[in-house]
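User: Could you go from structure to sequence for me? I need the amino acid at each position, not a summary. C-alpha cells:
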C-alpha cells in the first residue's frame, strides 16, 4: 500500500494519477483533510482516509497497513515543521517502511526563507530510522503561469528575479518522478535535486509569452519589498506575497538554478519545456 498526504492538492492529485499508471487503485491510500474533496479519488477505487497534518492520532490510523508514504510538504508556512513531525512520528508508529519527502531544491544551502522548515524536516527523517528519499523539488512553472492573465491585460509582467536563471518544471513532471521513486527499488537513502532541463529568466518567459500570445509583454524588475507590496495590493495574503518576493529575490542569486538534470534522468525523458507550458496555459 502506498499513501499520499495532501492527496487533494495539486501535486497530490498529479502524483496519484502517475501512480495509477503502474498500480491498481486498491493499492493507493489518499490522505485528505476533507474526504468530500477526494470523491473523485474514491470513485476510482482509491481508499480515502481522513487526517489533518495537525492530528497525529488520525494520521497514525490513516497510515495503518501502509508500506510506502509520499509525504508532500504542507502548505501552511510556519506550521510545517510541527505538522511534518506529526506525520513522521505517525508513520513510525504505523510501521511505514519507506518515506519519499518533497523538499526544496538545494535545501541545505538555499537562501530562501522556505528552506528552514524543509531542513528541519530532513533532519527529522534522518533521525526517524525509516528509509527515506529526499525529492528536493525546484520551482513549479505554474508559479509563473498564474501571472499570465494580468500580464496580458496590462502588457507588464512584474517580478524581482532580475536576470536570475530559473530551472523550473511543471508539477506533473515532479509528480511523475515521485511516482517512479515510490514504484521502484533502489532509491532509499538518496537525495535528488530536481529541476527543469533548460533554465530561463523572467525576461525569457515574457519573450516566449509575447511570441505565443501575439501581444507585447515586457518584464518589469522590482525590488523585493516593492514586489511583495504589489502582490499584497492585488489581494495575495501577506505571507504568500512575502514568500514569492523572497523566492524571486533568491532566484536573482541563483537559488532556483540547477543543471544536474536529475529530474529528467528519473523521468527517463526530457522535462516539459517552457514553450509547451505557456502554450497549454494560453
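Assistant: Here is the amino acid at each position, in order:
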Amino acid at each position: 500500500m502506498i499513501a499520499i498526504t495532501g492527496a487533494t492538492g495539486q501535486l497530490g492529485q498529479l502524483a496519484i494519477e502517475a501512480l495509477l499508471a503502474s498500480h491498481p487503485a486498491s493499492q493507493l491510500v489518499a490522505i485528505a483533510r476533507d474526504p468530500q474533496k477526494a470523491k473523485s479519488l474514491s470513485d476510482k477505487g482509491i481508499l480515502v482516509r481522513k487526517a489533518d497534518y495537525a492530528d497525529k492520532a488520525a494520521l497514525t490510523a490513516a497510515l495503518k497497513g501502509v508500506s510506502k508514504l509520499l509525504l508532500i510538504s504542507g502548505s501552511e508556512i510556519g506550521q510545517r515543521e510541527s505538522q511534518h513531525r506529526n506525520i513522521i512520528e505517525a508513520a513510525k508508529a504505523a510501521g511505514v517502511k519507506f518515506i519519499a519527502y518533497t523538499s526544496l531544491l538545494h535545501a541545505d544551502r538555499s537562501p530562501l526563507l522556505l528552506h528552514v522548515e524543509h531542513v528541519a524536516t530532513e533532519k527529522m527523517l534522518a533521525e526517524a530510522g525509516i528509509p527515506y528519499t529526499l525529492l528536493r523539488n525546484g520551482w513549479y512553472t505554474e508559479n509563473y503561469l498564474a501571472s499570465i492573465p494580468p500580464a496580458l491585460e496590462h502588457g507588464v509582467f512584474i517580478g524581482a528575479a532580475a536576470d536570475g536563471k530559473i530551472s523550473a518544471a511543471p508539477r506533473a513532471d515532479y509528480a511523475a518522478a515521485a511516482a517512479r521513486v515510490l514504484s521502484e527499488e533502489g532509491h532509499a537513502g538518496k537525495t535528488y535535486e530536481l529541476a527543469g532541463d533548460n533554465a530561463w529568466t523572467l525576461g525569457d518567459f515574457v519573450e516566449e509569452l509575447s511570441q505565443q500570445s501575439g501581444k507585447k509583454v515586457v518584464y518589469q524588475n522590482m525590488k523585493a519589498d516593492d514586489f511583495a507590496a504589489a502582490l499584497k495590493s492585488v489581494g495575495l495574503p501577506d505571507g504568500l506575497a512575502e514568500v514569492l518576493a523572497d523566492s524571486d529575490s533568491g532566484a536573482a542569486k541563483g537559488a532556483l538554478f540547477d543543471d544536474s538534470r536529475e529530474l529528467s534522468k528519473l523521468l527517463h525523458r526530457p522535462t516539459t519545456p517552457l514553450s509547451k507550458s505557456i502554450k497549454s496555459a494560453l
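One structural detail worth keeping in mind: The two ends are 38 Å apart (CA to CA).
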